[in-house]
Design goal:
Blueprint (H helix, E strand, L loop, with lengths): L1 H12 L8 E12 L2 E12 L3 E6 L5 H8 L7 E6 L2 E2 L5 H10 E4 L11 H12 L5 H14 L15 H13 L5 E5 L7 H18 L2 E5 L3 H7 L2 E6 L2 E6 L1 H6 L3 H7 L4
Parallel strand pairs: 3-8, 3-9, 6-7, 7-8
Antiparallel strand pairs: 1-2, 1-4, 4-5, 9-10
Helix pairs in contact: 4-5, 5-6, 6-7, 7-8
The chain binds adenosine-5'-triphosphate and magnesium ion.
Length: about 260
């Protein structure tokens, strides 16, 4: 009987659901460090072209989750599949190939301080994609900088850039290899509200322009509002709520409400 009811429910849902390709599939993910059980049971699917925002208190394991996605950390249990392949089973060579498809924007922006902005952007083209054609390199560097509004800073050193400009340069370096997935770890942290908004708008425009799928970890609710198609809230090693920004905004759940209490 119960199965019957389940089936009917699924059948009823189908017409409104478009068939979507899953690019990241996380099931029952567990990760501990010694006695510290950080990820207890993480379940998440990211569809092609979708921006998923992860909210959660500091130290709940948001960064650990994305490190499992790129194979920098090995899970203790469960499954993390990217484009259908289990990350934990990949060889070093396969991981390298995976990391070309996945752009990773670190919190610090992580530019090389001894290189100009241009050289920072050339690096992934020449070292990772092994592109040798000078014209193609110049064109792609200029295009990437232009799309983050930073073309005029092409010959500057990172130390001459403001925090917001460094973030943009980091973003340009992430998108220059045209990754299919981008993982953003706190892209707006440490920026003023106006610059944060610009970065959030950029994240949205990259999604639209390059059809990327993204996970965006943030504490910035304005960024969540602007950039997300879907939001998940993480607490005590699990995802405890999921929905669109507006759905969660209306939620009566106490923990969910605590994230939205200052939002009009
Ligand atoms: N390589 C590691 N070795 C040991 N412990 C780790 C390691 N990486 C993360 N941890 C621990 O796992 C927990 C979760 O860390 P994580 O960085 O994922 O938190 P977070 O949710 O990203 O927090 P924040 O919002 O502050 O960035 C923390 O207690 C951290 O100390
Ligand atoms: Mg973190």
């Amino acid at each position: 009987m119960a199965m019957e009811a389940e089936k009917t429910k699924k059948e009823q849902k189908q017409p409104s659901e478009k068939k979507q390709e899953v690019v990241i599939a996380i099931k029952g993910l567990k990760k501990s460090f010694g006695e510290k059980h950080v990820l207890k049971n993480i379940n998440l699917e990211v569809h092609r072209g979708e921006n998923v925002v992860i909210l959660g208190r500091s130290g709940t394991g948001k960064s650990v989750t994305i490190q499992c996605i790129v194979g920098m950390l090995k899970p203790d249990g469960g499954s993390v599949k990217v484009f259908g392949d289990e990350v934990a089973d990949m060889s070093e060579k396969e991981l390298k190939a995976l990391r070309i498809k996945i752009g990773f924007l670190f919190q610090s922006g992580a530019l090389y301080d001894s290189m100009t902005v241009r050289e920072n952007l050339e690096f992934p083209l020449t070292r990772v994609l092994k592109i040798k054609d000078r014209d193609e390199i110049d064109r792609r560097v200029e295009e990437a900088l232009d799309s983050v509004g930073l073309l005029e800073a092409i010959d500057k050193m990172p130390s001459d850039l403001s925090g917001g400009m460094r973030k943009r340069a980091g973003l340009a370096r992430t998108i220059i290899v045209e990754p299919q997935i981008i993982l953003y770890d706190e892209p707006t942290t440490g920026l003023d509200p106006i610059t944060s908004r610009e970065i959030s708008d950029l994240i949205l425009s990259i999604q639209k322009k390059q059809k990327t799928s993204s996970i965006i970890i943030t504490h910035d609710m304005e960024c969540a509002r602007i950039a997300s198609d879907r939001v998940v809230i993480m607490d005590d090693g699990e995802y405890i709520a999921e929905g669109t920004f507006d759905e969660l905004h209306k939620s009566k759940e106490k923990i969910v409400g605590s994230y939205f209490k200052d939002i009009s």
